[in-house]
């Protein structure tokens, strides 16, 4: 995009993230592939490299990227080249350079998810007392299946625990078709 010159700068590089629509503008003295590649590398270091890079400048820019932005180990183009191999200037892709960081982060996330799931189970156990065969329960009738003056609940009995936390429930008129989890009925005295 060319605008009014501002000193030595005659062009503006307009980089937009497709997902977030975040825009980065960089002033450019020329439209050469070297200068554009340098600015785009700086943007990758700021935002991270995209999976797909779309441009309107033709094939010369893509060829320049293939020459300059490739990983030393996996030869992939455009993950990210903001990191280098230890004690050298050999470019590595973001995935290889931060492999241990990524693995540790995944382990930490997995542990956090497991802890959160356990907290949710404990909360559920406190909120819904355990049920056993022969207990009286109240089963809610969905609004779409209920008439205006019909009761909101049906008195039922737990017939058996078919699977862990899934119960077969019956009334004096027969066994209900579906299996109920502990949060779909309430204890009745």
Report on this structure.
The protein has 189 residues and is an alpha+beta fold. The chain has 2 domains: 2-100, no CATH class; 136-187. It is 31% helix and 28% strand. It is built from 4 helices and 11 strands; from the N terminus they run E-E-E-H-H-E-E-H-H-E-E-E-E-E-E. The chain has helices spanning 33-47, 59-68, 94-97, 99-127; strands at residues 2-6, 9-16, 23-28, 83-84, 91-92, 136-140, 153-163, 166-171, 174-175, 180-181, 185-187. The strands form 3 sheets. Strands 6, 7, 8, 9, 10 and 11 form a 6-stranded antiparallel beta sheet that branches. A 3-stranded antiparallel beta sheet has the order 1-2-3. Strands 4-5 form a two-stranded antiparallel sheet. Helix 1 (33-47) crosses helix 2 (59-68).
């Amino acid at each position: 995009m060319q605008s009014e010159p501002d000193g030595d700068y005659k062009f503006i590089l307009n980089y937009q993230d497709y997902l977030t629509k975040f825009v980065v503008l960089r002033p450019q003295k020329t439209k050469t592939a070297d200068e554009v590649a340098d600015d785009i590398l700086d943007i990758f270091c700021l935002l991270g490299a995209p999976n797909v890079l779309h441009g309107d400048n033709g094939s010369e820019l893509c060829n320049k990227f293939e020459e300059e932005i490739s990983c030393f180990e996996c030869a992939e183009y455009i993950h990210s080249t903001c990191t280098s191999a230890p004690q050298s200037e050999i470019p590595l892709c973001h995935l290889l350079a931060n492999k241990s960081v990524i693995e540790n982060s995944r382990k930490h996330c997995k542990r956090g998810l497991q802890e959160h799931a356990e907290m949710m189970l404990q909360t559920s156990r406190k909120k819904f007392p355990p049920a056993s065969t022969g207990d009286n329960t109240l089963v809610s009738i969905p609004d779409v299946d209920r008439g205006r003056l019909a009761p909101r609940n049906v008195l039922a009995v737990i017939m058996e625990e078919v699977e862990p936390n899934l119960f077969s429930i019956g009334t004096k008129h027969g066994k209900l078709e579906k299996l109920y989890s502990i949060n779909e009925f309430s204890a009745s005295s």
